[in-house]
Amino acid sequence: MSTNFKTYRPYVSPFDPCKPILEKAYSTPPNLYMGFQPPNLPQFTPMEALRAGTLWKPLFDTWYGPLEPGGKGGLPQ
Amino acid sequence: MKQVPAEYYQLMEQLQAVDFVLVELSLYLNTHNDDLDAINQFNHYAKERKKLKKAFESQFGPLQQFGNSFSAYPWNWDDAPWPWQV
Fold first, then answer.
1. Which residues lie across from A26 on neighbouring strands?
2. Which of the residues B16, B18, B21, B42 would you substitute to probe the A interface, choosing the one with the greatest number of A C-beta atoms within 10 Å?
């Protein structure tokens, strides 16, 4: 399944004093996958748009990090 | 102390929402200058903004300076509340 969360596997030093995090995730914005914005996308109402930060629904992102609860966060399934 | 009525915040919020729509549509139209629907929507909200601005200013004084807004008598540009006081 396609998702806005991408992952990478950082280098782990053998001298790392902490338990290594083998896979790290980060969030990417939806406009990256749209290319040129097509016309007549579904819109938010003006009041919703003010809070969503965008007028167009497909461009909305909660922008929660993968570790933050509350968002649709979490590592990609 | 004088308090601003609840209507002040309602009108201001509507104005902000419409302004945001106008910003979004402006940015969109910069790259889609032949989208008639979007232009109609833009003009609709531009008109809406004028209405809201008039309603707001008639009750709470000028929003902008240098001839973009009218003043009542006496001069009320410097009346409280200032933007950072609401």
1. A6
2. B21
pLDDT digits (tens, 9 = 90+) for B1-57: 578 889 999 999 999 999 999 999 999 999 999 999 999 999 999 999 999 999 999
* A55 inside domain: yes
Q: Does A36 contact B45 at a Cβ distance shorter than 8 Å? A: no
Domain count, chain A: 1
In a domain, A2, yes or no: no
Calculate the CA B10 to chain-centre distance.
12
Per the structure, the complete domain to which residue A54 belongs is given by 25-32+41-77
| Integer Cα distance of A15 and A29 in angstroms | 35
Say whether B20 and A56 touch across the interface (CB within 8 A): no
Q: Is B55 inside a domain boundary?
A: yes
